[in-house]
Amino acid sequence: MIYLLVGVGGAIGSLLRYSISLMTINLLTTSFPIATLITNFLGSFILGWLTHSMIKKNNYSPQLMTALGTGLIGSFTTFSTFSVETIQLFEGGQYLLGILYILLSIMGGLLLSFIGSLMSTKRKEVNS
User: How far, in Å, are 30, 106, 120 from residue 115 at the CA level?
Assistant: First the structure.
């Protein structure tokens, strides 16, 4: 059953990621890989929030946590696309953009995951 749940979550996550890519391409024309950055930022925030809130509440099944964390968010975010896009920036001679992309991705992802975790904590304190 867990494989089915992770697969369904993965299908939904990848479709959401693709939708963000399409929306971004239609709105922005830039060589900077903004769609992947937005997706990874959003995924980092959601995973930080979900993980923290689910662990604290302890009333969610491990199967649901795996389906959401590994399936949905795992397929929504993408390290492989980040890696390829970074190499493409470097190969295109856009070294500063490549470095900026790396720094934004790592620092922004960590920061948004932390903020998501904090927001989960604050929400719980307000509801208590």
Answer: 28, 14, 9
